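Long-time lurker. I teach an intro course on protein structure, and each term I like to show students one example going from raw sequence to a predicted 3D structure in token notation. This year I'd like something fresh instead of my usual example. Would anyone be willing to generate the tokens for the chain below so I can use it in lecture? Attribution to the forum is fine with me.
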Amino acid sequence: MDLRAGGCPAFGETVGVSLASAIRSALGAAADPTIAPGQQAYMKSAMPFLGVRGPEVRRITRELVREVGVKDAETLAATSRELWDDATHREERYAASELLTFTVLRGDWSLVPYLEHIARTGQWWDHVDGIAKRVAALHDAHPGTTADLVRRWSTDDDFWVRRLAIISQLGRRDRTDRELLAEVIEPSREDREFFLRKAIGWSLRDLAKTDPAWVRAYVERTDLSPLSRREALKHLA
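-- Reply from a regular --
Happy to contribute to a lecture. Here you go:
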């Protein structure tokens, strides 16, 4: 499976298009135009919303995958890419991200170009944060190559790609590579961008759940922004 080229690959095309169409139709049927403007305003989104809440988007997506009978990684990934690239409403992109959560795609290295594409074209925290766990799974499946990947991302000109590198180990708990975390934080440590400072604090706060001593020591010896420091120590006495 290779999603580096634009659009969707040819494999699974018939089923993939059918699933994508079914998801679009179901989202449209579930739309609530009374809440859509508020959702769009909250997300500061240029792309409009249909007015479907997040849990409902996830439910619709997963139920339709079961109903259509899609089980292979290629079709799920192709459908996700189609929904993402052809989206006219933000919920379609949320559905695209949800398709990547199926177990058959966990740790699939061929998704890397597409995950980076999501970060570069999504350009907002909901989309970037929504794929962080996909990168965390790559850390488990391909530790060395994923470490090299996030090191590269951590110095990217696009701060959303850097944010993805920083939060890429969320939820790994005792499996977190502490040295790597510090390494990917460093290029953004003095950056004034709010979403980078928040990501630094978040990644440290998450690790503090299982290794508070390391986080305290890191914060003490590192010149962090007040926001990053406050977020990192938020739940530590």
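Some talking points for your students: Residues 13-29 form the longest helix (17 residues). The mean pLDDT is 93.
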